Amino acid sequence: MAPQTCMLCGHALGDALLVHAIPDRFERAVGIAEAGYRRVWRGCPHCGTATNIHDPAHAKAIKAVGAAYYDIDFAGGDLAGKYAKVMALPPERSDNAGRVERVLAALRRWVLPVEPVKAVDIGAGLWVFLARLSARADFALSAVAIEPDPTAAAHLRGLGGFAVEQGLFSGEDRHRDANLVTLNKVLEHVAQPVELLRAVARVLDPARGLAYVEVPDVATIGNRPPDDNILGALHVHLYSPTGLALALTRAGLEPLEIGRVVEPSGKITVFAFAALRPLVDRHAMR
Length: 286
Description:
The protein is α/β, with parallel strands linked by helices and 286 residues long. 33% of the residues lie in helices and 22% in strands. The chain is built from ten helices and eleven strands. It has a seven-stranded mixed sheet, sandwiched between helices. Helix 5 (95-110) packs across helix 6 (128-136). The model has no long low-confidence stretch (mean pLDDT 92).
């Protein structure tokens, strides 16, 4: 049964915002045929989030795509070469350069001085964010990269420099008292985003812990081509600033800053910084 209500706010989903009649490259890779294909993005009139509605018959195949994302995306290609190419981009062409500057500014405002800064990067991917953050930081950084995809995790271990854990993040005790937890283009892949954010809240240092969340903007619909990867089968939700704020609040986090940005790559992004109440109170007492 396709979902009829918004997983963020519980309200009934509204009209179709975008209808796909052709499988994307990930769906084709696992054998989903074009004949009779239909996938719909439906909007929530309450919080502005969009939900990706699949044919229920394709659920098992879509799950298989998520388990082998990098094998399909790179088709046996060189992740190390892709990493080197992205790292070589000048700041004005790099999404990660802007991301790092946002995070550094927030750390200086809300967290520092802490030595070392204990960071947890959930869904670390190619490791570009942590590498750029480490290079730009004027403080010691102790970080763990968490990546469920085995191909990407092997790539990360080959780079060295930070700890790498292959698997899904669930708020384990060993990650507690984190000063920074980042989810860069991760939450849109999660059907139950509030549960993941609650796990993030469990590991944050209450007085000096900051969460950074970055997700695709629902404004991608209508402002980017329908075959844009952001609108593909692997994304469960596209977020509005209101929807992201709601998810953070329901998880017990206090939104500190929420914004929209068009990145150098052309991606339209919603980002947010959030923390636990003791950090907010600590700054209010200054």
